[in-house]
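__Record contents__

***
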Amino acid sequence: MASNPTDIEGLALSSNLPDTVPDLLQTVASHGKDLIAQDPEARLKLPEAARSLTYALETPREAIIRHCWSESTSYAALETAVDINLFSALGTDDKPKTVAELAEATSVDPILLGRLMKHLAAIGTISETGYNEYCPTGFSKVLTVERYSDAFPLI
């Protein structure tokens, strides 16, 4: 068997595509300016460029964690939140609510709900505003309406 000169352990801890970062930063900045200038295509191009930048910056180990732990459990976290009416309890008023308040409103164990809230914040569904305190995002506000939240139990 031929030896492999690549330092796999070092590679696992290094940015995935570091040489592309400067160009990707310029692309993100350019699409950001286009978005502010009301270019309708920029709203679609900007997140794509930002994702490309994220993927270039993350290490292979971080990508493994994202695929195995975060993304694989995102659907279950969202479906659970829909099932317990968490998004309705969180509301649409941008006022932060504590895990204790939400646990009472949803009749869910506060420790379990706290873990669910951390995961939902990590995937951008809600915003963590303080210790055990969260507020809604546009996404979670939309999920207070059944015609949108019903998509999750169907998948």
Summary: The chain has two domains: 17-57, 72-154.
